[in-house]
Amino acid sequence: MALMTWSDRLSTGVKAMDEQHKGLVKTLNELHDAMLNGAGKSAAGPLLDRLVRYTHDHFASEEALMSRAKYPDLAAHLVKHKDLTRQVEAFVGRYKRGELSLNVDLLMFLRDWLTTHIQKEDRDYGPWLNQNGVR
Predict the structure, then answer these.
(1) What sign has the CA pseudo-torsion 126, 131, 132, 134?
(2) Topology (CATH) of 13-129
(3) How far, rounded to the nearest angstrom, does the alpha carbon of residue 87 sit from its chain's CA centroid?
């Protein structure tokens, strides 16, 4: 069973960003599967590393689009990206140091983080980007 399912309620209306968000959802579901199957660090570690890399790459892409379209709330969005990145990196670091296990609480945090960020912050930029030539 998937931890998170993509739906139109998560769509920003910006195709490239929606595809990247789907990739984040896929990675989160792979982590969930790894946890359910009792995978150890050898399996979960690379998935968490991929999540961190994907998050960095996605945020960079998103920020470039917002900058190009002169999105008025870019500065505030950048602050949220930095905060979210720090949170994810902190969780991954704690996991790698053995201070935290891959458990439902961690996955629920990641799911809620992704859902909230997309629905609150990312959906706000969709109409602006669309009006400024980004589909």
Answers:
(1) positive
(2) Four Helix Bundle (Hemerythrin (Met), subunit A) (1.20.120)
(3) 11
From its phi and psi, is residue 10 left (phi > 0), alpha (psi between -120 and 50) or beta? alpha
**For residue 109, what pLDDT band results from cuts at 50, 70 and 90?**
confident
Where in the chain are the domains?
13-129
Q: Is 55 exposed, middle or buried (0-12, 13-18, 19+ CB in 10 A)?
A: buried
Asked if pLDDT for residue 94 goes beyond 80, the answer is yes
